[in-house]
Amino acid sequence: QVQLVESGGGLVQAGGSLRLSCAASGRTFSIYTMGWFRQAPGKACEFVAAISRSGGNTAYADSVKGRFTISRDNAKNTVWLQMNVLKSEDTAVYYCAADRAPWAPRPGLRYEYDYWGQGTQVTVSS
């Protein structure tokens, strides 16, 4: 089992930045692909970013490429999502997820992931 706890959400003005953190505990953190997803009110959950066990592979949704950066530190059991140039459409609950594969075959798909955090709210005011 893996437990995931997100933090770092909040209210920020458009154009600003936030860094989300996801702390993992339980079974060996380093064996998992880690991903971030988000869900805005009235909308489906969507993929944001993912990173492989080694950190050598990453994937991003087109909507966040060039603005968001995913990173991890296996020694600290933590994955981060640095979000820059935030837009009002980035407003959502952001979820951290873990997949039991060094690099998920389809990292953008929700059903690839086995464990989920409770989410952290990000609100971007325009």
Secondary structure layout plus pairing:
Blueprint: E1 2-7, E2 10-13, E3 18-26, E4 33-39, E5 46-51, E6 58-60, E7 68-73, E8 78-83, E9 92-99, E10 115-116, E11 120-125
Parallel strand pairs: 2-11
Antiparallel strand pairs: 1-3, 3-8, 4-5, 4-9, 5-6, 7-8, 9-10, 9-11
What characteristics describe this protein?
126 residues, mainly beta, 7-stranded mixed β-sheet
Number of helices: 0
State the shape. Answer: globular
The major pleated sheet works out as: 7 strands, mixed
Distance between the termini: 40 Å
> Could you give the order of the helices and strands?
EEEEEEEEEEE
Counting helices, strands and paired strands, the structural category is mainly beta
Rg from Cα: 13 Å
- For the secondary structure, the number of strands is 11
Mean pLDDT: 95
Low-confidence stretches: none
Percentage of residues in strands? over 45%
Percent of residues in helices comes to under 10%
Structural notes for this entry:
Strand 7 and strand 8 form a beta hairpin. With 126 residues, the protein is an all-beta fold. The model has no long low-confidence stretch (mean pLDDT 95). The chain is built from no helices and eleven strands. It is globular and about 40 Å long. Strands 2, 4, 5, 6, 9, 10 and 11 form a seven-stranded mixed beta sheet that branches. The protein has a four-stranded antiparallel beta sheet with strand order 1-3-8-7, with no helix packed on it.
Concise structural overview:
Helix content is 0%, strand content 50%. It is an all-beta fold and 126 residues long.
